[in-house]
Amino acid sequence: MISVAANTQQQLKDIIQAAFDAAREAGEIPDSPPAEFTVEVPADTAKGDFATNAAMVNARTFRMAPQKLAAILVARMDLSALPVDRCQVAGPGFINFFVTPGWYVDQVKDILEKGPDYGRSSYGGGQKVMVEFVSANPTGPMHMGNARGGAIGDVLAAALDWSGHDTIREFYVNDAGNQIEKFGKSLSARYRQLFLGEEAVEFPEDGYHGEDIRDHAKAYAEAHGDSLMALAEEERKAALVAYALPKNIEALKRDLSTYRIDFDVWFLESQLHPDAINAVIQKLEEKGAIYRQDGAVWYKATGFGGEKDEVLVRQNGIPTYFAADIAYHYNKFAVRGYQRVINIWGADHHGHVARLKGAMDAIGLDGSKLDIVLMQLVRLMKDGEPYRMSKRSGRSITLADLIEEIPIDAARYFFNMREPGSSFDFDLDLAVKEQSDNPVYYVQYAHARICSILKNLAAEGIVPRTPGDGELELLSTPEERELIRRLGRLPQEIIDTARDYDPARLTRYVYDVATLFHKFYNTCRVKGEEDSLQQARLALCTATRTVIANVLGLLKISAPEVM
Fold first, then answer.
1. What is the pLDDT of residues 30-40, one digit of tens each?
2. Do residues 129 and 339 lie in contact, with contact meaning Cβ atoms separated by under 8 Å?
3. CA–CA separation, 490 and 511 (whole Å)
4. Would you state the pLDDT for residue 437?
5. Strand partners, 84
């Protein structure tokens, strides 16, 4: 599916390209291909509905002033097949295009016809894409970084799906390696302390200190008593991990589902040990990317963009996390056939980006198909002050704490209000306010307001019908046309979100739509107008409701009918 706006944009680009060709054949410009140019909606639409920089970016290529080149192109353009009323050269050489009233009619009709599917496109061409996000260690509860990463990754995956990609959401469970070893030592220490006293059993300095570790140890002891006390340490750790780890993973799934995130795949790191890791090390060795030194296996990272070589297998024979990571991503590309892989990581992992992409190149894959979105930290604010204390762990706010503190709608909206790479303050007080300065409330109110308008008119016997083209052309005020123009941007906004990995585009967009609707409604009466105009404005209200509902659906935020 392609939107009216996107179709017009592409047609204009084709016509401009044809104008270059015609001018070149006529000898008006040198025989050279034009540089890449854009056709965009200008910031100030009073100066045109579309604008191109074709003349400006090609002034040097064709060795003439932009205004002169623009005049040549305008003279060579055949716009007769487009809903374009006129075009003109402006400023330093922009070419501005003004659409006909019929173009606005087509926009509204397109939205009404497509309804809940409006915004979908075939841009991605069915490309198989995986988005891996959250992937919290299963050794404890999820924290604020996971809350933000979850909201960003889930909405990005939705945008990729809507823009025509075959998209999978995946959670990587780190159920092997050093963190599981620490988890087992921590559980064992707390379990033994229950029977011997905390003074008698030293807790590991690098152990996990959360209350959840104590809770697991107590729960096991209540169910099985001191049955593990007689076992060797390794056996005791294994038994406690086997008991606690599945419970933690179920808690992760439960909390994420409450947060409206459901993963298609939960991939266990343990699946990679040892066969997949050994196979990857062998492949790297075959390609000359491995050497052995001091009893360890090293990867020649410096030959593939890394700052230093990396250990893959320690002297004790245990693979490193990096070895498992290479095997995991080899599995994504080579075994499961994903054409593009997107990982949402915390900004503290920035040093790992180049070496993992380089490892994909080293093993014979294409590291450029692995994209990493680095996510900055969030600072929670309450009463104007940083808010840190968690009632559960005593150390930090968990995802479960957050979604008890504020509405899930607010959490998902607020975490997508800024680009992933920007840090921001999350205002807990604002998130719970039911006032227009709360952006998610403001957007939801616009949707509820439209529902109320339609319901109240229906109670008076005024029911929306399908207006004719002539009736829709009555939507001619600046407020109406600006709203229609913005509604028509939805498919491209979703494409841009998927292309730029920036879900904040959607929250900005839907907020703008709500603002333009409120402006339209405060300026243009719906009830009481002559029937044709009333029906046209009802159609615009319905189209606006559709767009808001579709964006909120992408964000997995409710679209209330009453507030």
1. 999 999 999 99
2. yes
3. 12
4. 96
5. 99
For 129, the 3-state DSSP assignment is: strand
Average pLDDT of 516-531? 96
Query: By the 8 A CB rule, do 439 and 557 touch?
Result: no
- What is the average pLDDT across 45-60? 93
Contact criterion met (CB below 8 Å) for 41 and 525: no
Task: Determine the 3-state secondary structure of 368 from DSSP.
Answer: helix
3-state DSSP assignment of residue 353: helix
* Angstrom distance (rounded) from CA 541 to CA 521: 9
Per DSSP, what are the bridge partners of residue 131?
169, 342
Nearest to 180 by CA among 296, 260, 106, 268: 268
Distance CA 371, CA 329 (A): 12
Residues 6+ apart with CB under 8 A from 227: none
State the distance between the two ends of the chain, measured CA to CA, in whole angstroms. Answer: 34
Phi, psi at residue 173, to the nearest 5°?
-90, 115
Tokens 């479960």, residue located: 400
Residue type, 454: L
pLDDT, one tens digit per residue, over 237-277 is 999 999 999 999 999 999 999 999 999 999 999 999 999 99
Query: How is residue 328 written in tokens?
Result: 């995991």
Residue type, 394: G
Cα separations in angstroms, 21 against 66, 94, 142, 516: 17, 19, 58, 40
Q: In sequence order, which residues have a C-beta less than 8 Å from that of residue 306 and are 6 or more positions away?
A: 354, 355, 358
